[in-house]
Amino acid sequence: MQALVFHGPNNLSLEQIPVPAVGVGEVLIRVHTATICGTDLRIVSGKKTRDVRLGHPIGHECAGTIAAVGEGVEGYGMGDRVAICDVVTCGACDYCDNDQENLCRERITLGYHTDGAFAEYMLIPAHAVRRGNVYHLPDSVPIESASLIEPMACCINGQHEMGLSDEWVHRKARRVVIFGAGPIGLFHLMLIKARWPGVHVTVVEPSDVRRRHAIDRYADVAAALDAQFEDDSFDAAILAVGVADLVPRLFRLVQPGGRVNLFAGFDVGASSAIDPNEIHYKQLHVTGASESRRRDYTEALMLVGQGRIEPAPLITHRFALADHAAAFDTAAAGKGLKVAFQIGPPAGGAG
Predict the structure, then answer these.
(1) How many other C-beta atoms can be found within 10 angstroms of the C-beta atom of residue 60?
(2) Secondary structure string (H, E, C) spanning the chain
(3) Which residues of 144-182 are buried (b: 16+ CB within 10 A; e: fewer)?
(4) Which of 138, 198, 283, 335 lies at a 20 to 30 A Cα distance from 89?
(5) pTM reported for the whole predicted model
(6) Is the dihedral of CA 13, 58, 6, 243 positive or negative?
(7) Nearest 10 degrees: CA dihedral of 162, 163, 164, 167?
């Protein structure tokens, strides 16, 4: 099969490697669509090294069809349309027992710890199958859209961690600011508007093209990076770009008792000079966000299945695996939004 194999920073090559053999309890996926994540860009550029293996395919945002099932696997059949929740946890530790399975110390991430989705086939290990990380797609969900459920689930986790909830929203008219109108910032915007339509959302983004994308997805305001806001203008702020220098600005913009979520990953060694008194005197709630839980994935799939969110328009560029250099250049340059590899043959159902 064809696969994009990662050999080190800026060294990604299209190679012929064996189709994985399917063992007991395992499932083989024929990958249909796989999208490039910001984390993939950081891996290829050498800015992310943790848990990254050399000499293996990468990629984790994907959907496809069942190509083979191992002995003992039940509930999956040849040709079933599926999407993959990539965070696989132990299910037995304190984190897993306390609805924080994304922090499980024994977790693995498919596409990092295992061979990834930038390939014609992807093997799902038995433990991931047992844990329910392979999701059947409703007929209402196009298979291309399903490749974007994973980043949506990560955004749901981030919003959960920062305390966005029905109760919080209904206490007063809320105002949220999101820095960044790339795919992640737009996912945050779309989720807030789908779940809590009355929340006023301002998006801050230097690109005028991406600001228009934000308005198209119901942002109330789309402002340039140099836009001036009064301090304490917002109830909550989400940093959807890995620019550490923006952190102090977010602290100033949220009002006392406000919430700040540092959602985006930062380069190794990144730092930010903050005024701790902003946190102390304003009693700010500052959170991070890492990956997602299966329940976040389930909610994201439900929102897409119900038609409350349609993520596919965020895919602005499509490439074959052979054109991987152009695909990664396009994604890294921010020329569009989501960049997808179209790998497998057309699938049945809605996609």
Answers:
(1) 25
(2) CEEEEEEECCEEEEEECCCCCCCCCCEEEEEEEEECCHHHHHHHHCCCCCCCCCCEECCCEEEEEEEEECCCCCCCCCCCEEEECCEECCCCCHHHHCCCHHHCCCCEECCCCCCCCCECEEEECHHHHHCCCEEECCCCCCHHHHCCHHHHHHHHHHHHHCCCCHHHHHHCCCEEEEECCCHHHHHHHHHHHHHCCCCEEEEECCCHHHHHHHHHCCCCEEECCCCCCCCCCEEEEEECCCCHHHHHHHHHHEEEEEEEEECCCCCCCCCCCCCHHHHHHHCCEEEECCCCCHHHHHHHHHHHHCCCCCCHHHEEEEECHHHHHHHHHHHHHCCCCEEEEECCCCCCCCC
(3) bbbbbbbbbbbbbbbbbbbebeeebbeeeebbbbbbbbb
(4) 138
(5) 0.94
(6) positive
(7) -170
Q: Which of 222, 237, 213 is nearest to 316 (CA)?
A: 213
The encoded tokens of residue 32 equal 């249909």
- Residue with tokens 């050999």, as numbered in its chain: 7
pLDDT tens across 92-105, in order?
999 999 999 999 99
**Tens of pLDDT, residues 30-70:** 999 999 998 899 899 988 888 789 999 999 999 999 999 99
- Of the two residues 137 and 48, the one the predictor is more confident about is 137
- The label of the residue with tokens 């109108």 reads 181
